Amino acid sequence: MEVQQFYYDNKIVKNFLYATMFWGVVGMSVGLLLAFMFLFPNVTDGIAWLSFGRLRPLHTNAVIFAFVGNAIFAGVYYSTQRLLKARMYSDFLSKFNFWGWQLIIVAAAISLPLGYTTTKEYAELEWPIDIAIAVVWVAFGVNLIGTMFKRRQRHLYVAIWFYLATFITVAVLHIFNSLELPVSAMKSYSVYAGVQDALVQWWYGHNAVAFFLTTPFLGLMYYFVPKAANRPVYSYRLSIVHFWSLIFIYIWAGPHHLLYSALPDWAQNLGVAFSVMLIAPSWGGMINGLLTLRGAWDKVRVDPTLKFMVVAITGYGMATFEGPMLSLKNVNAIAHFSDWIIAHVHVGALAWNGFLTFGMIYWLVPRMFKTKLYSVGMANFHFWIGTLGIILYTLPMYVAGFTQALMWKDFNPDGTLAYGNFLETVHEIMPMYWMRAIGGSLYILGMFTLVYNIIVTIRSGNKVEDELAEAPALTRVSSKRTAGETLHTWLERKPVQMTVWATVAILIGGMIEIVPTIMVKSNIPTISSVKPYTPLELEGRDLYIREGCVSCHSQMVRPFRSEVERYGEYAKAGEFVYDHPFLWGSKRTGPDLLRIGGKYSDNWHFNHMYDPQSTSSGSIMPAYRWLIRNKHDRSNIQTKMEAMVSLGVPYSEEEIANAYELMDTQASKIEKNLYADPDFVSSYEADKKFAEESGEEFVEMKDREIVSLIAYLQRLGTDIKVKETGEVLTQNK
């Protein structure tokens, strides 16, 4: 049999490893800054692009897509070549994947702090960047599948199955969730509205966790853990059950993020049922990973690489037990919108993704650079300081979550809320925020230790060269099943059929949940009194989106006595039919805003944005003073309204033609209300005098950004009228 010689491409792996470490430091540093912003709200006072609302999506995108994303590519490019006994299909596509991905990350790092965001969680990037992501991701997929066709190893190992499922599912999720109508170079509106947008977003959001943070890392686990332990995978049969059940069930679970919301009950219940089932395949994978170490536990004691991997798999098990538990309605009623969810997310991110990445780096670098790790002691220090950081981060957040839930729901004997002022809850959990910041500091200290250790290791090693390998060419065999070949064994040598069946498995759940919600009108009962936003309110909503207000404030009052008492009438599906995108939020650092309209005066909102502590003593909300200073660019309002008409919002031609006049009329009313406050008049006159003396352009108050934002906030929740019994007066079934 002819043996062929070829070279593995190690340089592309090296590039992705460098990027992983660099973006890991960046993403974690931004996260640590955000943690300290809870303690020192005005630490970046007056700098719009360093405000919490703009940096929060930068942190999540940097950690998920830059740090973890580059780690995925590094591990996939290294393991795929060796599992398939072939160089990657195309060196050009490999380089295009690397440089394209880095450019996307840089675009995100620039655009998000500047306020260009769709505000959809884990999908905040605007439409030009979305297109770039799709192009680069397809290039990665072509490279992966192309390599399968030129492979010299007939059997497709389990890690390859997970890589395939990752490529297919992320492509489907990204494309469907990112369907948006552009209105300018960096502004778009989601084609979905309200309830439908929420379902599609969390179908994407939950499965971004499933198929970007989980399935590729399971593939890496199935490759690197056996390699590091020098042991075969514990159970081949369990890996088959694990793979197919996981990719089929996971895709249904998204609605558990929307329990007790305005989403139809049938969709919520489907999400709960499949989320509970999800524990079986998830723990099957964890058990398969941990039992692979049987007979190698003596190595775990001395090998930091295995230490990281053991804790990573354990973290995966903890997170995937907690996820189904959080999907139970009685548990979700307590946990949702609280810091419990922050703890849950970071168990997965810091332990599962972070530690498995660290273990992979410590294993890969010495081999690729043909040297020994500079310091095993430093690697062990990294492990212990990182583990302590995870504990000090997550445990206080669990306590904070329980504290929030108990205080939010507590009533006095006379039936009034025991903690009617939301800030009482905030003050109570400040010590937990301090501990979270300390835990995050320890974790990033471990990251810096890794970077130093790896840099010195690289300097002591050799230059990375493409690795010579040899394997016999793959001989053709019957495309049909051979004698004694099981169905799955046959499937494991057929990449096209494997891809098709994996695609079918992941499409079923999404189609059954999403198609009826979009197509069947009875899922979204309309309310006749709900009207489109006025032009000024629409502009104010875009400012609300730009500043990331949804990161801290929800707009979804759930049908609980405590929430109705605190915020007002619970949310109805028909209230959100003109919301492109939806803004229900996922956390309450501040109170819910769905019924904020008319609750406070225009002056209160003005002062609250200028100095939150002046209206809410002890608030940890930062000031948004640039909104008070900046002139509002409303030049695109007619284009925006026309785009909304294309999406089904019933603006008339007359309203669009008179948009500027309508805005000016509404803005003048708000300006007049602001003038009613003597203190405002004196500060406004001083501002005007300063502009005249300095020669700067003076902007009339009605033309400033704050006025548009006030118009939007004063509109929220005012469209429905409710009897004392809670019955909506104007609802069409």
Task: Outline the structure in words.
The protein has 733 residues and is mostly helical. Helices cover 63% and strands 3% of the residues. The protein has helices at 11-37, 52-84, 91-111, 127-149, 158-177, 194-211, 215-229, 236-250, 265-277, 279-291, 297-302, 304-326, 329-335, 339-368, 376-408, 422-428, 430-460, 487-491, 495-519, 535-546, 561-567, 602-610, 612-615, 625-629, 637-646, 653-657, 659-675, 678-694, 705-715; strands spanning 3-8, 180-184, 187-190, 467-472. The strands form two sheets. Strands 1-4 form a two-stranded antiparallel ribbon. Helix 6 (194-211) runs antiparallel to helix 19 (495-519) and helix 7 (215-229) packs antiparallel against helix 12. The chain is globular, with a radius of gyration of 27 Å.
Structural class: mainly alpha
How many runs of DSSP E, i.e. beta strands? 4
The overall pLDDT average reads 93
Q: What share of the residues does DSSP label as strand, in percent?
A: under 5%
Largest sheet: 2 strands, antiparallel
Q: Unreliable segments (pLDDT under 50, ≥5 consecutive)?
A: none
Number of distinct helices:
29
Strand order of the largest sheet: 1-4
- Residue share in helices? 55-70%
**What Rg is obtained from the alpha carbons, in whole angstroms?**
27 Å
